[in-house]
What we know:
The chain is α+β, with helices and mostly antiparallel strands. It contains two helices and four strands. It has helices at 15-24, 55-70, and strands at residues 2-7, 32-40, 43-50, 78-80. It has a four-stranded antiparallel β-sheet. A hairpin with a 2-residue loop joins strand 2 (32-40) and strand 3. Helix 1 (15-24) crosses helix 2 (55-70). It is globular and about 35 Å long.
Amino acid sequence: MDMQYGNTGSPSLSAAVITDLIWAYARPADGVEHLRVRLSNHLASIVIFVRAAGPDQALIKADGVVRRAVRSPGLRGYEIL
C-alpha cells in the first residue's frame, strides 16, 4: 500500500526518523513486515507491507499503523492527503 502525507509546517524530518516513528507505533497484530518512507517537496510517501488475509485487511492494518504514528507528537504537522 502506498500512502502520502504532507508536512504542514513542522520542521522537516528525515525519512529514517519518520520510518522509526512509524515502527514505534506498529503492534504485533498489525503484521508489519517492511516499510519505506521517501520524502519529496514536503510530502512523505509511505510504502508498507503487512501480513493480512486479503487486500482490504492489509489496507485497514497499514492505515491504522500510520494513523497512530501521525497522531504522535513526533509527527506533529503531518496530515493525510
